[in-house]
Amino acid sequence: MSEEKVTQDPTLEEEEQVAQDADQTTATEMNGEQEAAHWKAQAEEHQNRMLRAMADMDNLRRRVRKEQEDLAKYASLKIVEELLPVLDNFERALAADKDSMTVDSLLEGVNMVYRQMVQVFDKEGLAAIEAQGKPFDPHIHQAVMQTQDPEFDSGVVVNELQKGYMFKDRVVRPAMVQVNE
Predict the structure, then answer these.
(1) Predicted confidence (pLDDT) per residue in 35-57, tens digit
(2) Cα separation of 55 and 18, whole Å?
(3) SS3 of 175, please?
(4) Per-domain residue ranges for the chain?
(5) What is the CATH number of domain 126-180?
(6) How many angstroms separate the CA atoms of 31 and 12, rounded?
(7) Is the pTM above the cut of 0.90?
(8) Where in the cell is it found (predicted)?
């Protein structure tokens, strides 16, 4: 009988082992399914985050483009606002009583408006280029004539025919000058 028990025990053990293997396989399959579901959910979350980030970038690009367009569109608004008082003074001068106006009062009014306009331009960074008596510089001067003047060295600006202007560090219009040979 003891031999039969020994023989029967391995059979029971095999059945138990098969049952345990089946349980482990089911558990592994469940863990595999759960793990696959976990990775799938994480992939979907990353996909959604990426789509939101792409949408945010598109919105940012649109907003920046609109801001740049508005900046370009209204860039001169500040100077226009500062020139309005100059325009007002010109309108007042034109509306003045022509019978009581003298040449001196007209010149005085024009001079005041001129100074007011120069102040606005100075404030914004516009400056006249000094040319007369300075060495000729092709970056800021445009030579339109040459002359021989013993009072000036060769290559020096003798006469300024039209003022030149710089806006901050950029030449807006070079000065038209006459240069000594």
Answers:
(1) 899 999 999 999 999 999 999 99
(2) 54
(3) strand
(4) 126-180
(5) 2.30.22.10
(6) 28
(7) no
(8) Cytoplasm
